[in-house]
Amino acid sequence: MADITLISGSTLGSAEYVAEHLEEKLQDAGFSTQMLHGPALDELPTEGIWLVVSSTHGAGDIPDNLLPLFETIRDTQPDLSQVRFGAVGLGNHEYDLFCGAIRQIEALLIAQGAHRIGDRLEIDVLEHEIPEDPAEAWLESWKSAI
């Protein structure tokens, strides 16, 4: 099993690129990883470490490729008490629900017993032309909190 399961939710690809960049940095640091873009719940380990990277679209909406997972967790309420996770969101501060998707996902995971590792990272794509840069900086402190 992978040390860290990366889960990406992306509408236009930015969150996917950030997740892939973080995966590369984790592998460089000696972690084994598994990357899943919009997985089903039964594809995920119910213990260990998840790193969720999600963009927000519309009015704080979860990306279409991650929505089925979110709805399955919400509807079936699985025990995720053996999961620890990191959360990285991408958004645009000009919208009222800036990074609304990752905030919803984080709240749902915590409600199911999962434990967040470190602080949630929210990347404003208007301030960071290359969102991988703040994500990489955040990853350094996140790795030490694992």
From TrEMBL:
A GO molecular-function descriptor: FMN binding
Gene3D superfamilies, A to Z: 3.40.50.360
Domain of life: Bacteria
Occurrences of domain Flavodoxin-like (ranges): 4-146
Keyword Disulfide bond annotated: no
GO CC terms: cytosol
InterPro entries assigned: Flavdoxin-like (IPR001094), Flavodoxin/NO_synth (IPR008254), Flavoprotein-like_sf (IPR029039)
Pfam families for this protein: Flavodoxin_1
PANTHER family named in the record: NADPH OXIDOREDUCTASE A, NITRIC OXIDE SYNTHASE-RELATED
UniProt name for this protein: FMN-binding protein MioC
